[in-house]
Amino acid sequence: MDIIDDLPDDILLKILSLVPLKTAFDAQLLSKRWRKLWRRLSILNFDRAFHKSDISFKLFMHTTITFLEYPVIESLNVRSAPTEISHGLLVMNDLLVNRVLRKVDVFSAHRDRSILSYYIYTYQTLVILKLENLILEDNYQNYFRIDITLPSLKVLQLIRVKYPSDEFLSRLLSSLQSLEDLILDRCLSDKPGTTTTLAILVPSLKRLRFVTCPDYCRHNVMMLNVNTPCLNFLSIEEYWRNVSFADRKMEELVEADVNVIFINTKKLLRTLISAKRLSLCLVTSKIPHGDVVFDQLVRLEICTCQKEWWNLLERVLLDSPKLRFLKLHQKHRFGIMDPVARWEEPSVFPDCFVFHLETFEWRGYEGTQEEQKIVSYILRNTWRLKTATINIHPEVSLMMIMELLAMPKASTSCQLVIQYINDPWK
């Protein structure tokens, strides 16, 4: 204890900021040196597990925040346990409104047990807001009466959160003029059987990640409208719904991972043509080549779980003259496969095959007749290929492996690597 007591206050405060505030509070019993040290903390970790009841938990939060010496709270982290219903975890508006609050992170161990007050949307200095497994207070009139004033918010993460309505969520997002990073994970977030429209209209947004679970999507019909022209990163996992993108390319886009089904594929590809790294899982028909050029694309990943996925592959390859890395991956355990569909070798091969493509990888290769044709086509026509890695399904036979090894290659320096994988979907 003497060694710890000799440490500077800054070091002790860093130590206390790593533990629940109840532990930091109890540390004042150790010695006089620790008696009021917790009052200078700017990172507050409240954990319901350290309290006997919700009442004692909220009373402790109220008391400790009242006696803090510094007006700035860099991070307020709240962890709620699923023992009792916790109404309005952050109704301490009178305590926080006069403080500079930078970050709020609230997590509930059970999504139906913690209800968050709408007053969270009034914190003027908030920069980061992370909510997980929560119910936003179900008072619809209050949501439309209260002004959403989060002028400083740059990062918003809503993970499995229940909202009063998608109309409210759209309104919330459109009011965040400084928002740059958005994560929406809607798995298990709403009641099934609704038909709604969610608009993500945020001109300042730079990073967007939108996730819904396939099982949830089967019971919901929703129109997702995305209009975010300044994005440099896009990730959408959205199935069995209608997704719409603005009819213009995203000039700043660097990386995109798009997994959707009901969509205008030609329109989508036009919005993504500025990307350097692209991952696609789409249901497509034969798409004419020629009106879109991915002149910045160097890395491409195509999911092979959907019907006639090779049409999308051919389309993007022909329009990607600078492509250097190609990966085929069966990313999902579900899909719309057609065992009678046949791949036809295109009459022309992509420019990238001659000048740039260096790395080819296939993960989840099953050795079907169509897959063998595609692998053979790529190996025979990629003149600068350095590495071809085929991660095969556990059920692929030794004879199929020998056929892979015997395939001719245009590049004499290409190294062919074949290996088994236990789980092709990882």
TrEMBL record:
Residues 1-53 form the F-box domain. PROSITE patterns: FBOX (PS50181). It comes from the Eukaryota. Gene3D superfamilies: 1.20.1280.50, Ribonuclease Inhibitor (3.80.10.10). InterPro entries: F-box-like_dom_sf, F-box_dom, FBD, FBL13/AtMIF1-like, LRR_dom_sf. PANTHER family: EMB|CAB62440.1-RELATED, F-BOX/RNI SUPERFAMILY PROTEIN-RELATED. This is F-box/FBD/LRR-repeat protein. It comes from Cardamine amara subsp. amara.
